[in-house]
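Ticket #407: bound-state structure for pyridoxal-5'-phosphate.
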Amino acid sequence: MARINENYQKLPGSYLFSEIARRTAVYQEAHPEAQLIKMGIGDVTRPLAPAVIEAMHEAVNDLASAETFHGYGPEQGYDFLRSAIAEADFRARGIEIDDDEIFVSDGAKSDCGNIGDILDVNNRVAVCDPVYPVYVDTNAMAGRAGDWDAEAEAWTNIVYMPTTAENGFCPAIPDTPVDVIYLCSPNNPTGTVLTAEQLKVWVDYANEHDVIIMFDAAYERFITEEGVPHSIYEVPGAKTCAIEFRSFSKTAGFTGARCGYTVVPKALVREGQSLNAMWNRRQCTKFNGASYVIQKGAAAVYSEQGAREVEETLAYYRENARVIKEGLSEAGLEVYGAVNSPYVWCRTPGGMGSWDFFNELLEKANVITTPGAGFGPSGEGYIRLTAFGDAEATRTAVERIKNLLAK
Ligand code: PLP
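RESOLUTION: The complex was predicted; output attached.
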């Protein structure tokens, strides 16, 4: 008899965004005239940069003739992209990363989930709370999370590190021993960043205790403030303790095209084994590489024209983030994030529950947000808004919220 992975049975009922979609659909059906504005799910809306589109068209043409045709590519990614990434994202910023420490993939979500393949099932995992749900759910699927405690809305074997306004959105080192720590900066959902000094504490802890840090820098390109680390490898000692995830999704509009990469330093060794060699083995066995066309498109992000065009789109979203943050602050709300991130994290007024505030904004302002409680117990009392929408719709949404709160 085939047995199933019972860990899947333990997963709580509905994924956050399905529940938001369900509530939205119910409301829209009852109020077909309502002009809803979506500021919930973190998906981009601007088209790909012309330089990227051009490169993808050229790559399609390559596939059309036998001389330039490409079949299976290297599982780790094409050299042209690996070296462009290592050069522009790291070496040009003074960080020594070799091309063969870069593994190109179809996105950071897959890598954040798949990385668990090279980790023991008994590792104790710590996450920031609130947290990007993928880290938690993939560990739960692998059997590392224990059981789901419905009352606490938390897994019994995951260490949740509160990351709230009270501690300046920098979690404290857990007082119980952990083996794997997920950090995300700029953070989803709070939109806040960790400084080099704050990261150094984690890097030193990880090196001292043979811990591995999973550092998610999917929103790195949204950093505007000087001095904020774009990579954990800017912190001395990080190469012996950290894996870094990056994505072209939010930075260059690849949410639909799909491309990201993971950095696994060769200096990262645990129990005498090179994590770089293990991840290489995992990818060669289970992954056949991101598509040639998409990798060509991703490489164009590093061209002069591509970089300029991508920057214009980022500026568009940054302006949305500014509009949201300023507008909600004027409305008297306590607002975080936005400055180095496309996310705005907002405390609910008067201690309201986050699903209650979500409902109020849906029903009375026709604006769809994400309730903070969906990101973990410490997300209760907050909502997240995204800056990825149309600029005019964003301004309208902010006006509606201001009008509602003025009543
Ligand atoms: N990491 C974080 C923190 C995210 O918010 C997301 C997407 O929302 C991802 C990773 C996944 O990105 P990708 O589209 O590359 O799979």
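RESOLUTION NOTES: The chain has a mean pLDDT of 97.
TICKET STATUS: resolved
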